[in-house]
Design brief:
Number of strands: 18
InterPro entries: AAA+_ATPase, AAA_lid_NorR, CheY-like_superfamily, Homeodomain-like_sf, HTH_Fis, P-loop_NTPase, Sig_transdc_resp-reg_receiver, Sigma_54_int
CATH superfamily of the largest domain: P-loop containing nucleotide triphosphate hydrolases
CATH architecture of the largest domain: 3-Layer(aba) Sandwich
Strand content: 15-25%
Shape: elongated
Number of domains: 4
Radius of gyration: 29 Å
Strand order of the largest sheet: 2-1-3-4-5
Function: Required for activation of most nif operons, which are directly involved in nitrogen fixation.
CATH class of the largest domain: Alpha Beta
Structural class: alpha/beta
Number of helices: 21
Largest sheet: 5 strands, parallel
Bound molecules: adenosine-5'-triphosphate
CATH topology of the largest domain: Rossmann fold
Keywords: Activator, ATP-binding, Nucleotide-binding, Phosphoprotein, Transcription, Transcription regulation, Two-component regulatory system
Helix content: 40-55%
Pfam families: AAA_lid_14, HTH_8, Response_reg, Sigma54_activat
Subunit structure: Interacts with sigma-54.
Oligomer: single chain
Length: about 475
């Protein structure tokens, strides 16, 4: 979608327009009638279409083509060419969704201004759509592990206030879904939830995207802050916000008002601000890529979202939920999970967290074998797991240790994973690893592994002092 389609029954005119546009660096395609035009659009929708209203000897006239384009490719801006004195028709075309019109005979500058504006508006619109696309995702948040319950407990406490929340946690752990949970349970639930993808917008576009703009030609085009009025604005990955925009956002938070790009009027909006980060913002402040004052304003209530590895117990529940969801949305087979598959999933590493689990489930369902329970062998290939039929590939660090220490390091890691997988429950862990409960306790003690309750969550970790003894 990068060229301009020129539809005119007069060859001289379409070639003239094409020459002008190509001189300006645009690629063009030409069509002399409605069939050719429709075929060109169906092959690949253009970035913009210039359309003559009167098409001699054609099955469809310009207005029909316009209607078809607006029905099937509503994002393609259409600029109408109308004969001199046909203003009513041009106005009718605008009502049908044409972006603008130019009258024949037109002057080149006028043509270029209209085209540039149309392209720019359509780009802004697309950008906003990508930003809002996430809006439709489901916001059912599932889990039953202690770490998850502790998270929900904290979220519940902030739903009723207006306090600014900073969600921190690794990529894909569910920060956005947590933000939606706050929104959905607050008295702003009926108002919009608007996501600003701080990493996805080019720095020089950020202000226009956030604050909107005002131009003589197009009037007011509201930005995301205005679109979120009454609801929640979610700054996803705040650490990626350009420094210049950070200062402007800070001003908005202090003054509770802003000005659109190109405008003079002050705009007031009522917003709740929720932000997320998977980076260490304090380090970003030290590196002077994040403004300290903004950090303090956004970080009023810090809430940390646990990684999937800290809530391994939830893996079967989440996997089953995603299987059901893919069954509903894409008709993928509704399969059960074998015990082996669950055990493997609960011991794998999940750098991409819940998102990675969701992607894995989708892949297994697509590539899968039949409709029976999902087996462990269908899970990621050996190459991805770094093991082969239980053969462990030694990591560099392990390979340099004497056997006794290497075995201890392995046992420590293995048992830590298992205990966390069973939510800190020693009996269930003992049962799974095939040891007596008391023997497991002794083993843990000798390895320096202790379990403790941190904000209501029982987790296993290594007590360095004990381990050193
Ligand atoms: N507790 C949960 N229950 C159900 N689905 C979840 C849960 N947590 C995360 N997900 C799903 O996992 C995916 C990733 O979640 P989300 O986008 O909220 O993560 P994130 O931390 O905001 O990611 P990123 O850091 O990449 O922005 C989404 O599809 C989300 O619906």
């Amino acid at each position: 979608m990068s060229d301009i389609l020129i539809v005119d029954d007069e060859r001289d005119i379409r070639e003239l327009i094409s020459d002008i546009l190509e001189d300006e660096g645009f690629a063009t395609r030409l069509a002399g009638g409605s069939d050719e035009a429709m075929a060109a659009i169906n092959t690949e929708p253009p970035a913009l279409m210039i359309l003559d209203i009167w098409l001699k000897d054609s099955r469809m006239d310009g207005i029909d083509i316009l209607k078809a384009v607006k029905r099937d490719n509503p994002d393609v801006p259409v600029v109408i060419i109308s004969g001199h004195g046909n203003i009513e028709i041009a106005v009718a075309a605008i009502k049908q969704g044409a972006y603008d019109f130019i009258e024949k005979p037109f002057n080149i500058d006028q043509l270029l201004v209209v085209i540039r504006r149309a392209m720019e508006t359509s780009r802004l619109r697309r950008e906003n759509q990508t930003l809002k696309r996430k809006d439709v995702v489901s916001s059912e948040m599932l889990g039953n592990s202690a770490a998850f319950r502790s998270l929900v407990g904290q979220l519940d406490k902030v739903t009723k206030s207006n306090g600014r929340v900073m969600l921190s946690g690794p990529a894909g752990s569910g920060k956005e879904i947590a933000a939606r949970y706050i929104h959905g349970h607050s008295n702003r639930a009926q108002a919009p939830f608007v996501t600003v993808n701080c990493a996805g917008v080019a720095p020089d576009r950020m202000e226009e995207v956030l604050f909107g703009r005002e131009t003589a030609e197009r009037g007011v085009e509201p930005g995301l802050l205005e679109q979120a009025h009454g609801g929640v604005i979610y700054f996803d990955e705040v650490a990626d916000m350009p420094l210049g925009t950070q200062s402007k956002i800070l001003r908005v938070l202090v003054d509770q008002q802003f000005t659109r790009v190109g405008g003079n009027d002050k705009v007031r909006v009522d917003l709740r601000v929720i932000s997320s980060t998977n980076r260490d913002l304090e380090a970003a402040i030290r590196a002077e890529t994040f403004r300290q004052e903004l950090y303090h304003r956004l970080n009023v209530v810090p809430i940390s979202v646990p990684s999937l590895e800290d809530r391994r117990e939830d893996i079967p529940l989440l996997a089953e939920h995603f299987i059901a969801e893919f069954n509903r949305s894409q008709g993928l087979p509704q399969r059960a999970l074998s015990e082996d598959a669950v055990a493997l999933m609960q011991t794998m590493v999940w750098p991409g967290n819940v998102r990675q689990l969701k992607n894995l489930v989708e892949r297994v369902l697509i590539l899968g074998e039949g409709t029976g329970p999902i087996e462990a062998r269908e899970l990621p290939g050996e190459d991805e797991r770094g093991e082969d039929d239980g053969r462990v590939v030694l990591s560099g660090a392990l390979a340099t240790l004497p056997l006794r220490e290497a075995r201890e390091a392995f046992e420590r890691e293995y048992l830590l994973t298992q205990i966390n997988r069973f939510g800190g429950n020693i009996s269930r862990t003992a049962n799974f690893v095939g040891m007596e409960r008391s023997a497991l306790h002794r083993k843990l003690k000798s390895l320096g592994v202790v379990t403790s309750a941190k904000s209501g969550v029982r987790v296993a970790h290594v007590d360095e002092e004990q381990a050193a003894e």
